[in-house]
Design a protein that fits this description.
By secondary structure, the chain is mainly α. Helix 1 packs antiparallel against helix 3 and helix 1 runs antiparallel to helix 4. The two termini are 59 Å apart.
Length: 232
């Protein structure tokens, strides 16, 4: 391999490592979204279950406390009748609890109560906002590195698929320079059948969209509205 080819290969491998780190950081944004949605859903489920099953338990306690013939051991009914009565009431209250649990999930998942969805977002927003800001800082540091800042590679090819192709043709010595590798890639991507296997949205463009995106509380509220998981 010619010296120019070796230099180009070494540089592209460095670009690949940098993009891998960038992609890993970008994936953390998706993980952060999932964690946010899961925490909101957990709080909704917890509050719904707590209220839905606490109320029937109170009702059952009230029933038993007022069923003097059963409590005092001086039955005006048979033991079987008392048992069946208690069982029917218990089953009815359990069914009520299941119904209330589903109903309260919808109520807490909406904005109709002071302790509904918006209140939950406001409560946990600072934690996720800090995490997101830390990730944005990491992305900015990666983008500002010398490898990506002054790269001769067109931005449209700053993705793992395209750089992987350039590295491959340099290793196989199909080309002798980075410029030739880029020209060869330009020819390859014109074939629509293999274009998707060689190109993807540039990692740097994805990173820029995240950096310039809305990081405020409305971002998290909109995330809830657009998430199918939260609409269930």
């Amino acid at each position: 391999m010619r010296k120019e080819g070796k230099i180009a290969l070494g540089y592209c491998e460095e670009v690949m490592k940098t993009l891998e780190v960038l992609e890993e950081t970008l994936n953390q944004f998706e993980i952060l979204k999932i964690e946010f949605l899961e925490e909101i859903q957990h709080k909704i489920d917890y509050r719904s279950a707590l209220l839905a099953f606490a109320l029937p338990i109170v009702g059952l306690f009230f029933y038993l406390a007022n069923d003097f013939s059963f409590i005092e051991g001086q039955p005006e009914r048979s033991i079987l009748e008392a048992f069946l009565g208690t069982f029917i009431v218990s089953f009815s209250l359990w069914a009520l609890g299941v119904f209330l649990n589903g109903l309260l999930k919808k109520v807490f998942g909406s904005d109709t109560l002071p302790m509904g969805r918006k209140a939950l977002v406001k409560q946990i927003f600072p934690k996720y906002s800090r995490k997101r800001k830390e990730l944005v800082d990491d992305v900015e540091r990666i983008l500002d590195c010398q490898t990506l800042r002054n790269t001769p590679i067109p931005e449209r090819y700053l993705n793992l698929k395209s750089i992987g192709y350039i590295i491959q043709v340099l290793k196989l010595e199909e080309v002798s320079s980075l410029q030739e590798a880029v020209k060869l890639l330009d020819l390859e991507v014109k074939n629509s059948r293999i274009q998707h296997s060689l190109t993807a949205k540039a990692s740097t463009l994805r990173a820029a969209e995240i950096i310039n995106g809305d990081m405020g509380q409305l971002f998290f509220e909109d995330l809830l509205k657009t998430s199918p998981h939260m609409r269930k």
